């Protein structure tokens, strides 16, 4: 393991958690998006992370972006809605706000932890440079 691998590993964690945060914020922003009953609803965005060179200090990466939830969404009876069909139904996405808030907190904590590692490594390397000047 090289001396500056800490930055690469934590940087990959920061990038992965940022993409997770982006996906969750997109889900929350579209939780009440309404579509006509004959169209597909907004689909929940998921981020799948994968270790890079597991065990050798390679960090993590986003392996794939996936869709979650029921692809059919939820049919809701709202006859007064302008997008309602003849039977009075509209389609909402199948996204649970409570689950999204939990995902948001986990992604935020992971981001903060990786950022703390970068900050501590930076101060440690700066202190080592000061010792070398002594």
Structure description:
It is a single chain. The protein has one domain. The protein is built from two helices and five strands. A three-stranded antiparallel β-sheet has the order 1-5-4, with no helix packed on it. It has a two-stranded antiparallel sheet with strand order 2-3. A hairpin with an 8-residue loop joins strand 2 and strand 3. It is elongated and about 80 Å long.
Brief digest:
With 134 residues, the chain is α+β, with helices and mostly antiparallel strands.
Q: What is the topological layout?
A:
Layout lengths: L4 H25 L5 E2 L7 E8 L8 E9 L5 E4 L11 E4 L4 H37 L1
Antiparallel strand pairs: 1-5, 2-3, 4-5
Helix pairs in contact: 1-2
